[in-house]
Structure formats: C-alpha cells, structure tokens
Specification:
Elements: E1 6-12, H1 20-36, E2 41-43, H2 58-61, H3 68-80, E3 83-91, E4 98-106, E5 109-115, H4 127-130, E6 139-142, E7 145-151, H5 158-166, E8 171-176, H6 183-197, E9 200-205, E10 207-210, E11 213-216, E12 220-222, E13 228-231, E14 238-244, H7 248-255, H8 265-276
Parallel strand pairs: 1-2, 2-3, 7-8, 8-9
Antiparallel strand pairs: 1-14, 3-4, 4-5, 6-7, 9-12, 10-11, 12-13
Helix pairs in contact: 1-3
Length: 277
C-alpha cells in the first residue's frame, strides 16, 4: 500500500503530430511546475510523444525503450523527484515490430512499460496495421503504491483491468486518444472499471484535431466507490491535480468484496467461448 495520500496531475495535452521535441518540452514544462505543487505522478495521454495519426511515419518515429526520448523523460523525473506516465510508439526487440506503449518512469529511472493489447481496427482506427499487440498486463510496485497501466480501447475489455486488480493494482492509469464519438462509452467504462474492481481509475485523454478526428479530453479520476474526484474540461488542454488515498482501496473491498467473491471458473468459460466467437 502507498504510505500516504498521493497527488496526481492529469496532463490533458494536445500533442503536436510528429513533433517529438515540442511534446517532450511539454513534459519538461509541466514537470517543473508540478513539482512546485507537490505532485507525485504526472500522466500524459496515449502517444503523447508523437501524436496519434502518424500512419506510415510511425516507422521512423518509433524508438526503443530504453531510448533517447524515454531517457530524456527519466532525466526530468529524476530532476523533479516525481513519477511520469506517457505514451509513445515503441520499436521492439524484433526489427520492424512496433508497439503502442505506455511508459512509467520515476526518480530512480525506468519503472516499466505496458504494450497495448487491444488494438482498434474499425471505423477510423487502423492500429493493427501498424502495431503488434502486447501480451502482458504488468502491475508495478512503486513508492506511491501498486500501479497498473492500460491504453484507450483496453477500457472496453473488463478482463484486463480485473487482471491488474487481481495482481494487486490500487491505481489503474488509462492513457487515451479517444475521438468525440466515443465519449459516452469511456465515461461509462471509467465508472465501471473503478467500481467493479474497487480501484482508483485515472483516465487521461488528449485533445486537439488530427486528420479530421477531434479528441474530446474529459480526463478524470474515479474513486473505488464511483465518485468522480476531478474532471478536466472537454476539447481544450487542461491540467488538473487530484489527491488520492490508496488506502481507500482496502476499505472499499471490505465494504463490497468483488475481488474476494470472484468465481475463477468463469475465466475458464471465457477462454472457451472467446475461441468459439
């Protein structure tokens, strides 16, 4: 458990497409002011490093982890004594294979990464054309508490957040690049994922317009009981702090023990049915 309440800063940014230097500068600027406000964890959206709609340019923009951009964010985290989550296209160990990745760094360097598992490839989305899905749902032990990471479309799939909760996550961070047509879905899923697992859910969505897609923002933190603790504005850049007490997770699970009462046999049925679908 985290030793004390922690302060998050939801960095609802509008990253510039293909402009890594500018997007890294945003991280540096916000980290500098965040430290003065005693922020512990600073969260930027999905693919903040590069913007979302890169198409084939993603092959030139992707970087390994560790790599130059990740190392630069590590330096920022170390300098200001805080943890930072941000999204980037990751060049994997296998040449030509790229992942849509959430990175977590802290004052002591790289904590870990999560490679997006659910890649939307329908309507305006074509992520499977460019990215390989991840296969793991790690939960990271940090001085702040146990943190799980998810990315955007992952939130449609309750199994992933449930898996991270079962692995001990107290806070699940979902970074996102969701266009306005999806707003109603995400607002519902944020509540559901937090309440059904009795975890804190921090959802950080981007804003701005790329290739005709308008990203709606609306970033928020939802408590285990479904209370929305902070809510960013729609459609404009907004940076909102939020204090959370991760000890509340234990109290919430004592009140409604969804994790303890889970029937694991259903997971076996889920595996069988998903193969038949």
């Amino acid at each position: 458990m985290g030793l004390k309440p922690i302060t998050l800063l939801l960095a609802q940014s509008g990253p510039r497409l293909g402009k890594k230097a500018e997007n890294l500068k945003t991280i540096e600027t916000k980290a500098s002011s965040a430290r003065r406000k005693n922020v512990d964890l600073l969260v930027f959206p999905e693919l903040h490093l590069t913007g979302y709609t890169m198409k084939d340019e993603v092959y030139g923009l992707a970087e390994p982890i560790p790599g130059p951009s990740e190392k630069r964010v590590e330096k920022v985290a170390r300098e200001h004594g805080l943890h930072i989550v941000f999204g980037m296209p990751e060049e994997s160990e296998v040449k030509g294979v790229i992942h849509n990745t959430a990175v977590l760094v802290g004052p002591k360097g790289l904590v870990g990464r999560y490679r997006k598992i659910h890649l939307p490839t329908h309507t305006v989305f074509e992520e499977r054309r460019y990215y390989r899905p991840g296969t793991e749902a790690p939960v990271f032990d940090t001085p702040l508490g146990r943190i799980g990471l998810t990315i955007c479309y992952d939130l449609y799939f309750p199994e992933l957040t449930r898996l991270e909760a079962l692995a001990g996550a107290e806070l699940v961070v979902c970074i996102s690049a969701s266009p306005g047509l999806r707003r109603r879905f995400f607002e519902g899923f944020c509540l559901s994922r937090a309440m059904e697992n009795a975890v804190y859910l921090a959802y950080v969505n981007r804003v701005g317009i790329e290739e005709g897609n308008q990203f709606w923002g609306g970033s928020r933190v939802v408590a285990p009981n479904g209370s929305v603790l902070v809510h960013c504005k729609y459609d404009v850049e907004d940076y909102q702090p939020c204090k959370v007490d991760l000890a509340e997770v234990g109290r919430a699970r004592a009140f409604i023990p969804t994790i303890k009462d889970l029937d694991p046999q259903l997971f076996d049925q889920l595996r069988v049915k998903s193969r038949e679908a």
